[in-house]
Amino acid sequence: MSAARKTVIVGITASIAAYKACEIVNLLQKNSFDVRVIMTKDALEFVTPLTLQTLSGSKVLTDIFEPADRWSPVHTSLADSASLILIAPATANVIGRLANGICDDLLTCVVYASRAPVLIAPAMNENMYNHKVVMGNIAKLEKIGYRFIGPVKGRLACGHDAIGHIAPAAEIIKEVKKILSASADKSQSAGGLRRIRRSSRSNER
Ligand SMILES: Cc1cc2nc3c(=O)[nH]c(=O)nc-3n(C[C@H](O)[C@H](O)[C@H](O)COP(=O)(O)O)c2cc1C
User: Fold this and answer.
1) Which of 25, 46, 165, 176 could form a disulfide with 18 if both were Cys (CB 3.0 to 4.6 A apart)?
2) What is the dihedral angle through the alpha carbons of 199, 201, 204, 205, rounded to the nearest 10 degrees?
């Protein structure tokens, strides 16, 4: 699959693993994806937009009310441009908001306004991850087709080795490519089916 011209929107949320997003954005860029970064307001406490802007080659977006360059609102134009939306790292908070219809910032609005596949890489404390509400929210999102990668076992911010560490960047990129090539195959076969239907209709006349 050629990665050229595929736009990956990377949503970065306020986890200690936000610094890992720098590596993920860098790898996506090296793999020829167009990368657009959205940070939640709280994520700005962890990494600077300047770093991510430099790595992605595009302005980092945070504010849903920022005036758009063109007539369409920023969240809908971004949503339309996405081939895939990756949220890495994903907090318990953003997973909860997405699972419960809460669109109160740019990232959640873009996810809801887009028809692109969504891949989520959670990162959080082990007890947060195993909390029944978080588990229920993940199950809810999986049921509607959102995909999850990780978390894995590793050294957490609290100091002990446990489940909750963000999946390795290389694994996340591999999953992005897999999802995009599967959706390209699906749209190719849908195109073929449409052509067959059209030609069989023209034979009917
Ligand atoms: C030092 C620190 C590290 C944190 N790490 C995480 C984390 O890894 N995962 C998580 O779900 N929340 C974590 N939190 C809590 C989130 O930052 C908090 O819920 C925040 O409001 C989430 O905002 P967002 O989901 O809009 O980005 C952390 C908070 C602090 C102060």
Assistant:
1) 46
2) -90
**Phi/psi of residue 194, each to 5°?**
-65, -40
| Most informative mutation of 42, 45, 47 for ligand 1 (most atoms within 8 A of CB) | 42
Tell me whether residue 204 is exposed, middle or buried, using C-beta atoms within 10 angstroms of its C-beta: 0 to 12, 13 to 18, 19 or more: exposed
CB 94 near ligand 1, within 6 Å: yes
Residues contacting residue 93 through CB under 8 Å, at least 6 positions apart: 13, 14
Q: Are strands 118-122 and 147-148 parallel, antiparallel or unpaired?
A: parallel
Distance (Å, rounded) from C-alpha 86 to C-alpha 5?
Answer: 16
How far does residue 15's CA lie from ligand 1's centre (Å)?
Answer: 4
CA angle (91 as vertex; 85, 97 as ends), nearest 5: 75
Question: Active-site residue numbers?
Answer: 158
| Residue ranges of domains in the chain, CATH in brackets | 7-204 (3.40.50.1950)
pTM beyond 0.85: yes
Which residue's CA is the nearest one to ligand 1's atom 16?
14
How much is the pLDDT for 1? 46
Place of tokens 């929107």: 9
Q: Longest C-alpha distance within the chain, in Å?
A: 72
Place of tokens 């067959």: 196
Q: Quick one: how far is CA 37 from the chain centroid?
A: 10
Nearest of 120, 9, 110 to residue 63 by alpha carbon? 110
Tokens 């509400």 belong to 133
